[in-house]
Design goal:
Layout (H helix, E strand, L loop, with lengths): L1 H18 L3 H30 L1 H5 L3 H24 L3 H25 L4
């Protein structure tokens, strides 16, 4: 029952966007708000992470810190360039490769920093 209600809500919103005057503008505004909310959440998460793990980040070597922060820079680049890169198949593949590479780099540095050797 709950799933049917959720589907009905989505269908009503889609009908309003499709047939209302200036519906496309409303959809663009909603997508922009969702994107900004997503970027704000990522920024807040990074701020909280950096405050909670200051000692761990400070003990990274220069190379590890460069890879770690570079990974977050690539994630920001992915967020900023998604619209442009999704216009072509090669751009989509590049975007996915950048995203996966950044996540793996961040994960690898974090695992290395939190394991005893």
């Amino acid at each position: 029952m709950r799933t049917a209600r959720n589907i009905a809500i989505i269908l009503l919103l889609a009908l309003a966007a499709a047939f209302a005057p200036n519906g496309g503008n409303v959809v663009e505004a909603i997508l922009a708000a969702i994107s900004l909310s997503f970027l704000t959440a990522i920024s807040w998460m990074l701020y909280v992470l950096s405050r909670e793990k200051q000692l761990t980040i400070a003990t990274l070597t220069d190379g590890q810190r460069a890879i770690f922060l570079g990974g977050f820079g690539v994630l920001a680049l992915c967020a900023a360039s998604a619209e442009q890169l999704f216009r072509s198949g090669g751009g989509t593949v590049l975007w996915i490769a950048m995203l996966v590479g950044a996540v793996l780099a961040i994960y690898r540095v974090w695992v290395d920093a939190n394991t005893y050797s």
